[in-house]
Amino acid sequence: MRILFCSDPMNRREVDADYREEYECARNAGFKVDLINLEELIEGNPVRAIRSIPAADNVERAIYRGWMMKPMHYELLYECLKRNNIMLITDNLAYRNCHHLPESYPVIKEYTPGTVWLHEEDLNDSIKLEQALQCFGQSPIMIKDFVKSQKHHWHEACFVPDASDLNHVQRVLEKFLELQGTGLNEGIVFRAYVKLAHLTDHSISGMPLSKEYRVFYFEGQPIFLVNYWDEGKYDETAPQLSAFNQVAEQVNSPFFTMDLAQTDSGDWIIVELGDAQVSGLPDHADIENFYTLLKRFFSAHS
Fold first, then answer.
1. H/E/C letters for each residue in the chain?
2. Which of 32, 140, 221, 274 is most buried, by the most CB atoms less than 10 A from its CB?
3. Can you list the domains of the chain with their CATH numbers?
4. What is the pTM of this model?
């Protein structure tokens, strides 16, 4: 059983500094740990990216824990490892299914804010943009791409108070696209804004932080729940997971995250899903416990 981490960009023999603690905890929990060179992978050289990982004599299952990558790069990694008898537990389709919000939206639709999207090639079509926004009326919306938002640029590149104000939408959209640059993921997502239970304001960006949690699921079972934000004082009222566990059973992925948030009225909603291989752990998380639990569940399903 292996965990694959990213190597340091300046020294491929060392783990990326941001994942050093996870690397050590995974090894202490009994996982084999290996390094991939993400820079080589992004440049289209998967063989060079995994050259420090010896091929397995028999098929071995593995999990990637590292920085986000686009589905096309994940597919390169998956197929190259497969030729060396190393099988990532999450295949290409499952990765895309949880990494891109429009893919997972049908499963979580009942529990998440209303959402529409446009692909990158349609972003300059003002008619399609106006049609996409009609379902929101004059309600507030948030803008992101298929994976990420610019929530730390809340008013400039994320939040629009009136979806019918097309000039305002365009200004926020243009700023968002400017900030995303070549990192744009597939297209743009427009989401109904839901007022969430306020936790605090971010100490640097001033963005409003809400009461949110991240749940890691393995083979449909919740294995780890953690406060989403490192800032703010959480009370002891964590979400009841029974309804969300039923949703998780419908998700086409063996290892994913579900981000939950409490609304201003006290209800709980799903913010979005994510591929757990590229979903971060907050700084305050008990990383040792995370890998102990992951090893236990991984072993039980091997």
1. CEEEEEEECCEEEEECHHHHHHHHHHHHCCCEEEEECHHHHHCCCHHHHCCCCCCCCCCEEEEEECCCCCHHHHHHHHHHHHHCCEEECCCHHHHHHHHCHHHHHHHHHHHCCCEEEEEHHHCCCHHHHHHHHHHHCCCCEEEEECCCECHHHHHHHCEECCCCCHHHHHHHHHHHHHHHHHHCCCEEEEEECCCECEEEECCCCCCEEECEEEEEEECCEEEEEEECCCCCCCCCCCCCCHHHHHHHCCCCCCEEEEEEEEECCCCEEEEEEEECCCCCCCCCCCHHHHHHHHHHHHHHCC
2. 274
3. 2-88 (no CATH), 114-192 (3.30.1490), 196-283 (3.30.470.20)
4. 0.93
